[in-house]
Design brief:
The chain is of the alpha+beta class. It has a single domain, classed as CBS-domain (Roll), CATH 3.10.580. Helix content is 37%, strand content 18%. Strand 1 and strand 2 form a beta hairpin. Helix 4 packs parallel to helix 6. The longest helix is centred in the last third of the chain and has 13 residues. The radius of gyration is 16 Å and the shape is globular.
Length: 144
């Protein structure tokens, strides 16, 4: 059975609590990502998503110089590198999330995205079911 360590991304773009909202937005644009783990050294302290920037940042009229602490999500689901791909897919579906930070001994060692499950052709059915379950619960866009 495949473990997360075999399929996770290890070249993660990260930021620190010293960064600001603008710097996070630039990283997201530069690397074409919507999820940035926030670390102190290698210790994971939270994550910021593109949605966090919009909802907790710009929609609250915060400027680009606003501290990461204003938009960070601290209560996050994590997994260890020895978690099975099957279990990771179940956690993603149950928690309606597309990315899981991988933490061993308190340190960020990688990120598992739902695409990692499908692209690697490992547990494709589970990845598809997880994505389907996540997508079913997303609000549909409202058009004016």
């Amino acid at each position: 059975m495949k473990t997360v360590k075999q399929i996770m991304s290890t070249d993660c773009v990260t930021a620190t609590l010293q960064d600001n909202v603008y710097e996070l937005a630039v990283k997201m644009k530069q690397f074409d990502i919507g999820f940035v783990p926030i670390v102190e050294g290698r210790k994971l302290v939270g994550v910021v998503t593109d949605r966090d920037l919009v909802v907790r940042g710009y929609a609250e009229k915060h400027s680009g110089s606003t501290a990461v602490t204003e938009v960070i999500t601290k209560d996050i689901e994590t997994i260890t590198s020895d978690t099975t791909a099957d279990e990771a897919a179940k956690i993603m579906a149950a928690n309606q999330i597309r990315r899981l930070p991988v933490v061993d001994n308190g340190e960020l060692v990688g990120v598992l995205a739902i695409g990692d499950l499908a692209v690697r052709e490992i547990f494709v059915n589970e990845a598809g079911e997880a994505l389907s379950a996540i997508s079913e619960h997303e609000p549909s866009p409202v058009h004016s």
